[in-house]
């Protein structure tokens, strides 16, 4: 496949770093996908997985690395972290908010045990300031700097005047040197607690995305690839790596958004339901008229509604590496899949011989143990994330090593289960256990890892007891077949749930209704019921062919499985465009005074026309600058303007205006 023609199409390298695999594709506009490859994602050192996939692609083609003119990466790392409740410890600074505001929009739940500092200050709806007092923050910084990995700052009505957020941001940076996210940098929408939530999650993800970008940049430099590095945002647009480093929250749903772009490119379908199944999550979205639907209210991931503009994607903790457990209660307990990802036993078995030895020991026991087939191991992430561990967490973490330790010997009390869960949530520890990937190995439908440890894990799981005291399955093959069947069945449910939600219904409640369950199962009765989609399903992901093979009768439409479904994300990463926006509001704090708020600029004018013209000029300039920062120099800028007025006794009265400038274009490539 080597091509030494001087005028050959420039080659683009697309990568996707998922929870389990890192994919790579070489693509050109003239030839399409030239080569593709996969390697395991190595969370402790992301460069290892990146190197494995890209080196395989380069070896398959024999091209010189210097031929690559653009590199773009999508990732599910941020999405997975929020679904699994992981990320760094963050110090949240709330300016002008009351303590009870933490109870709104899930902010307290997202904060967890992370520290929060309340300071006096903030602004009113017109951008007028109240007195700022950062003394409590200043006094707390020496201690906080040792306990957190980043800070999030949110001030009351900062979208109308960000001055107090800027003051707190600069103070924290000067005293700690740690990353700081201010809420006005991420969103211009009103709704303080939800903006604070978005800012908190962004700060929590900074270290994770920074590691990904640093690992990728280091690898590219080592291979002599001197090309711009782009990252896919959650709306499918591309931005430079430096842009993504400061706004990692915008990469939530990056991988799924890239998969939609890739699905459209590969199938040519304008209308479809796209379902991308990975190791950790299943991501479902709708293509309408050739474009993905965007969520007007902001992306929801891991149960949190953010202010991030992204595809209207629903992310479920369902994948090949989902934890398999039993639904508690009842005589015939059903199988539960996810939402937590665990390391498959078949994968752990390839990395450590002790896994097989411990499984053999557990199989020799006369009775099934509650913790059989389960292990824990360190993830190997930087020690910074260990800051702030409590005594129980620190003690258990010290007992866990880099290789899998059996839980039946590691945990000595029931309370340590909760301690282990907290370590997993911090991203410090992986749990290993029986998964659908193991079930596929047992039945010979997957063979990339160790089938023997998968079989032993399946046998241990099949020995679990139901409410009558009987084994839940007859053996490894029986339980494995049931696990794969349950995964396909659950996949149909999440696809239908997404469709119902897009139709304005409560998706989860509708799918759970007995009538829909009967229709999906095809159970007959006096009343014949059926449910079907109005468009085909596009199945993506390396395991889509396995898990979606029997999907069609469950969703009532065809399921399209593209030839390159396993690398749709990596392909989508290189065929997209740069797209950024800048927004401004124009208000009237008092009769005859018009105030514009655009970015970090607040200015007053004496006429509506002057204010609107100044606001448009300001955000055109902002959008153009952001487009250059995001990676394109030939951006086209479009404007939209929403004007709110009222007529009172025949007289027009100005209320407020909102202006948006959108800049878009193809990313710059190396010459």
UniProtKB/TrEMBL annotation:
Domain (Hydantoinase/oxoprolinase N-terminal) ranges: 13-174
InterPro entries tied to this protein: ATPase_NBD (IPR043129), Hydant_A_N (IPR008040), Hydantoinase_A (IPR002821), Oxoprolinase-like (IPR045079)
Domain Hydantoinase A/oxoprolinase: 195-326
Pfam name, any one: Hydant_A_N
Family matches, as PANTHER family: 5-OXOPROLINASE, 5-OXOPROLINASE RELATED
UniProt name for this protein: Hydantoinase/oxoprolinase family protein
